[in-house]
Structure to design on (728 residues):
């Protein structure tokens, strides 16, 4: 199963909006017979790829698969039927389907055909790989992964006037920033606010150097259309920059559109872009995972609104004190990070936690 | 040497104001011949205890000792002479003496007598055990270890009015608080401000359950003598509570003194107790390590004044936002924690770092 998880990881950033899936087939003597993983462009599901590579050796064998085999006909035929037809005797699935409407159907069909089925091996790992898919398939909204880079005492920038505008100010070190590139690579879209654009002039591109099928969609919340036309984001736009606004200023909209920026006029909530409406829109565009890299106001609004599914906070081991810019305004009640995981990134470290489990939402 | 360090640790909280020292003696064939550690009350230094337990087997053997053997006559005779007299052929010391005036003297004397001497094995571990001693022996002031317990975003208490006065409010969990008891056990004195006393009514006692030779000295900074007579600190005082003040209010001083509290009237700095003067006073009372458990104002003053040698920050994985009480007011420049160490304490974690190395100050 660990090998199947490794295979599944090959599909990261390639198979979205499908889940990442890996499959290993052992022959009847327990020897490796075939391997496969799902890549969107090649259409075939991991099981079908693995069965093809196993050929006749699949007969009487065991299939390890990181997600319950599907039992429906989409772009491809049902995998459960393919496994049955190949004569596989036993299927071990890491987890059932996240969609409660279809979960268990693949298992049921296999069992009806006399195949021995077990589920739950390496379940936590398998679920984690498809958190975005689980959230999206059930709610049609992206999983929201909030990234924050701050000092040990929760500051995201020095006091006002201590750094030049329109230049990035890095709180964290190189190792943390490389990890952020990996997070961008794993995401379908990244979100920031126009204040951050004005302040730091970031590119928000995926500079991981890793392959991706669809370009990273860069989304800017900009209710009043203050987006600077000479910002790096506008200069590098190629239909992959979306400005979400409630402004109807046609001149500004045209100026942005002409430069390859998509402008989406969305429903307003107290004069600002409605975040739930934006997430609905992104979900409709098959954004499974949205990485947020926002400032104080949006960090607070997203957390207070219960809109964050997972949070990852990079901490630089420095103390700036309370004159510096806080990462979060008042939150009442406090937000608790349960089962927090801690990782080192050079001199920095990160604390990450799941605030809402899309897999258990799916189960409800 | 690892065994010698274990032995040295037996002296924690017992041998202060002497350093903790452990010694292992191997006979000429490399077999364990004797062990010893220094305990203040028994007077003998670790080497002498180990030599006694080794007896004749020390002759031609090797002594592993966590600190350079002394070459002076204090309460006991010089250890270098004892090792020479016992016929030890080789001495391995983890580190030289922290006092640059005497460092190397023991080694020199041993070498003059034909003993092979090596130094520097497990040096970092050995120095860490005697950080307080190294600071105090050279500067006659205690090592200042700052403890902070805060949320992930640097808050030490919820917004004003969110918790009852004169009741402790715990940010961190049980595992962190147990570790704080260990820090108190390892310290000679603990420091807090009268605001914390009024706010939380803490006891500030060592509840580690571990043996200590001298009672933990509980020091309260109270420039205006606002110490509540019905506080737990006053109620449990037995000459082990020191109120440091600049007030000359004889009535208040008497009221406290009658209740077993020591009141020290110290030099003022802008109307408040001078922290350097307080540390001088504590050093004169053989306080090697002072643990600070203070609030926002004192945390900031201590850090900004460059008065902190080591910091240990316990973080609870929760986010309170900027309405809650910050751990530090503005610090400019920011304080950098280099080579920070991260530990887990249940759901919490701690970040600790050395801000000023008393061993390298000693070398200057």
């Amino acid at each position: 199963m660990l090998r199947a998880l490794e295979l599944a990881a090959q599909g990261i950033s390639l198979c979205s909006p499908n889940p990442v899936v890996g499959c290993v087939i052992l022959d009847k003597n327990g020897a490796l017979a075939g391997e496969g993983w799902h890549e969107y462009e090649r259409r075939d599901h991991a099981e079908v790829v693995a069965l093809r590579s196993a050929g006749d050796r699949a007969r009487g064998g065991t299939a390890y698969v990181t997600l319950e085999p599907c039992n429906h006909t989409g772009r491809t035929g049902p995998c459960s039927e393919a496994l049955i037809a190949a004569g596989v005797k036993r299927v071990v699935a890491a987890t059932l389907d996240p969609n409660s409407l279809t979960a268990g159907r693949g298992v049921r069909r296999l069992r009806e055909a006399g195949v021995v089925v077990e589920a739950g091996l390496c379940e936590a790992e398998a679920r984690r790989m498809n958190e975005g898919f689980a959230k999206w398939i059930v709610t049609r909204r992206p999983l929201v992964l909030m990234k924050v880079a701050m000092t040990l005492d929760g500051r995201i920038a020095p006091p006002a006037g201590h750094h030049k505008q329109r230049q990035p100010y890095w709180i964290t070190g190189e190792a943390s920033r490389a990890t952020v590139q990996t997070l961008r690579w794993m995401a379908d879209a990244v979100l920031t606010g126009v204040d951050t654009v004005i302040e730091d002039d970031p590119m928000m591109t995926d500079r991981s150097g890793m392959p991706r099928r669809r370009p990273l969609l860069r989304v800017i919340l900009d209710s009043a259309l203050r987006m600077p036309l000479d910002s790096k984001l506008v200069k590098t736009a190629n239909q992959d920059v979306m400005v979400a606004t409630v402004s109807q200023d046609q001149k500004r909209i045209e100026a942005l559109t002409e430069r390859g920026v998509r402008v989406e006029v969305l429903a307003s909530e107290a004069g600002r872009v409605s975040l739930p409406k934006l997430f609905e829109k992104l979900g409709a565009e098959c954004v499974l995972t949205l990485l947020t890299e926002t400032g104080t106001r949006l960090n607070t609004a997203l957390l207070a609104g219960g809109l964050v599914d997972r949070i990852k906070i990079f901490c630089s081991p420095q103390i700036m004190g309370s004159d510096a810019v806080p990462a979060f305004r008042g939150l009442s009640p406090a937000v608790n990070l349960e089962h927090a995981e801690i990782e080192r990134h050079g001199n920095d470290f990160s604390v990450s936690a799941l605030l809402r489990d899309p897999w258990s939402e799916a189960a409800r």
About this structure: Chain A has 13 helices and 20 strands.
